[in-house]
């Protein structure tokens, strides 16, 4: 039959499916390398540039609002989820074609082996009837390792890599910096915090923020006040801005004084001591009507080496049976310090006060004391309001500190660590709020500078671990292609054309022993139509090796049992 003629010199290894020929394998390898290079390149660009491409995005809903349901391809992420999955699905389908062709060809390779092959791996084998997800297991059991490996790789590419590819890219919001004109309308006023300042509003502000969780006033955070600035042009909604500014703050360095003396004369109590080279004295009256005492004083007689001044706090409880009528006495002495430093402040503009997001120092801190530091330290202790319902006697500053300690530790507000933390925190908050309220003056001519607009932008990123999985499988696939190419040279088949249809199969079986075997099985008593199942149980089929020999005149391949070949069955082909 013409379809089963001699092998031509152009097909020394038998007929090959298109996908197994070198041009197709080369094309597949090029596609493989291109995909791997693309994934690697995008991963590098993504990691170095906060994503590799900017994508449109709809506005997100504000807190408390219901956002619009995504209804566009961009909002749903169809392009960067479905497209990679589609591409790798096509890639997997291409590989499945290669793996399927190898599996389909394998029985015809076995028949051409010297000495033949068992029936179970040749004439009774057809991988096409086995689902690819299980085919690899049967191939490995039959020692068809290349068929098993390529089929297993096909399963991974189809059911693992392609779904993972849908998560190769992910959109994230990043901040893109752009130049932004900045204007400064105020500057620091060294004379702003003077003796005319009314401290009650400052204390009320600190009380609202520190005790009751109120919003901070504009241009302050928990410890600093910042020189204000504003954008000199329109800023994208939701964008923040950053500019150079100066931060002003004050702090206390407190120590628990253990070396002190306390004396009393009637209801008057005197406390004296020394802290790091600075001596101090306090005096106050005691009364059975007051349960708690918190004396606050300032000492200006300290040397420069001793940090110039001390804020001294004596806390105690009244006890008629205790010496000097006081018990649980704690004397805390605090050295004051001031700090101003240049840096870059990032804020988020809003309808009210701008939200402080971050501050990065860029210069060396200036710790010199402000011009009117003595006025500040003395005046914050001068405000005293009488409240008959309070169980302690102290200044307004002391009251604020005690309330803070009480909120932090209701069971023991006079504990040393609790009280010391409250003292330091309140002092810092009072100074920063005082600077924000009184420490700046309006400029007659605004100053202009250049800052940064920090615009939230949706960028597409590569998920590194997914990219790693994909590249690993692409590398394995590329190596397998090379192995397939070279193994095909050592695995010729009996095919001279694609075994397509009954006519091609009939040409392969012409004059073969299989026709006789099939005829005998069909004429067996009780034949139920299942030739293959019956043949699997017959010794003359399953216990023989099968191979092909060439017709001595036509050169056609003829399938014969190996034993018949040894007996000279080739001569009988002429009859």
Automatic annotation (TrEMBL):
Can you tell which superkingdom this protein's organism belongs to?
A: Eukaryota
Q: Does the keyword Transmembrane helix apply?
A: yes
Task: Locate the transmembrane regions by residue number.
Answer: 25-45, 78-103, 145-170, 462-488
The UniProt keywords, alphabetically, are: Membrane, Transmembrane, Transmembrane helix
Alphabetical list of InterPro entries matching this protein: DUF3433
Q: Output this protein's name.
A: Uncharacterized protein
Taxonomic source organism: Fusarium floridanum
């Amino acid at each position: 039959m013409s379809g089963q003629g001699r092998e031509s010199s152009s097909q020394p290894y038998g007929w090959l499916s298109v996908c197994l020929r070198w041009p197709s394998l080369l094309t597949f390898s090029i596609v493989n390398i291109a995909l791997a290079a693309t994934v690697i390149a995008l991963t590098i660009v993504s990691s170095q540039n906060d994503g590799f491409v900017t994508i449109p995005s709809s506005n997100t809903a504000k807190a408390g609002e219901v956002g619009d349901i995504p209804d566009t391809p961009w909002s749903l992420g169809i392009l960067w989820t479905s497209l990679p999955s589609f591409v790798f699905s096509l890639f997997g389908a291409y590989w499945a074609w290669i793996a399927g062709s190898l599996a389909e060809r394998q029985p015809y390779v076995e028949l051409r082996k010297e000495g033949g092959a068992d029936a179970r791996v040749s004439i009774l084998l057809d991988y096409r009837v086995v689902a690819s997800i299980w085919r690899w297991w049967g191939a490995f059991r039959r020692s068809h390792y290349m068929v098993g490996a390529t089929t297993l790789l096909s399963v991974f590419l189809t059911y693992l890599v392609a779904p993972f590819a849908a998560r190769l890219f992910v959109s994230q919001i990043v901040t893109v910096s752009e130049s932004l004109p900045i204007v400064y309308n105020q500057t620091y006023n060294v004379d702003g915090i003077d003796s005319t300042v009314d401290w009650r509003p400052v204390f009320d502000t600190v009380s609202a923020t520190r005790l009751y969780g109120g919003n901070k006033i504009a241009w302050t955070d928990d410890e600093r006040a910042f020189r204000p600035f504003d954008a000199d042009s329109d800023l994208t909604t939701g964008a923040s801005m950053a500019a150079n500014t100066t931060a002003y703050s004050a702090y206390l360095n407190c120590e628990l004084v253990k070396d002190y003396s306390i004396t009393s004369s009637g209801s008057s109590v005197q406390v004296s001591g020394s802290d790091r080279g600075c001596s101090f004295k306090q005096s106050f009256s005691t009364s059975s009507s007051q349960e708690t005492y918190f004396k606050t004083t300032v000492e200006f007689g300290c040397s420069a080496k001793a940090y110039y001044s001390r804020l001294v706090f004596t806390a105690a409880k009244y006890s008629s049976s205790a010496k000097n009528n006081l018990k649980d006495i704690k004397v805390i002495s605090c050295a004051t310090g001031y700090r101003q430093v240049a840096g870059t402040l990032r804020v988020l503009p809003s309808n009210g006060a701008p939200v402080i997001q971050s501050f990065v120092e860029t210069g060396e801190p200036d710790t010199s004391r402000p011009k009117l530091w003595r006025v500040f330290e003395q005046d914050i202790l001068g405000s005293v309001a009488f409240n008959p319902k309070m169980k302690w006697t102290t200044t307004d500053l002391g009251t604020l500190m005690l309330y803070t300690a009480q909120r932090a530790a209701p069971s023991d507000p006079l504990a040393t660590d609790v009280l010391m933390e409250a003292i330091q925190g309140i002092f810092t908050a009072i100074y920063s709020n005082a600077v924000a309220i009184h420490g700046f003056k309006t400029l007659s001519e605004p100053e202009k500078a250049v800052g940064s607009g920090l615009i939230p932008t949706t960028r597409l990123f590569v998920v590194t671990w997914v990219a790693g999985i994909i590249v690993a499988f692409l590398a394995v696939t590329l190596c397998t292609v090379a192995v397939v190419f070279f193994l095909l040279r050592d695995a010729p088949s009996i095919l001279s054309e694609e075994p397509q249809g009954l006519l091609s199969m009939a040409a392969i079986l012409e004059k073969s022993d299989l026709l006789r075997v099939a005829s005998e099985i069909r004429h067996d008593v009780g034949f139920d139509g299942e030739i293959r199942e019956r043949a699997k149980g017959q010794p003359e089929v399953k216990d023989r090796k099968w191979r092909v020999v060439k017709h001595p005149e036509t050169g056609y391949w003829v399938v014969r049992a190996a034993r018949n070949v040894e007996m000279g069955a080739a001569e009988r082909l002429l009859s």
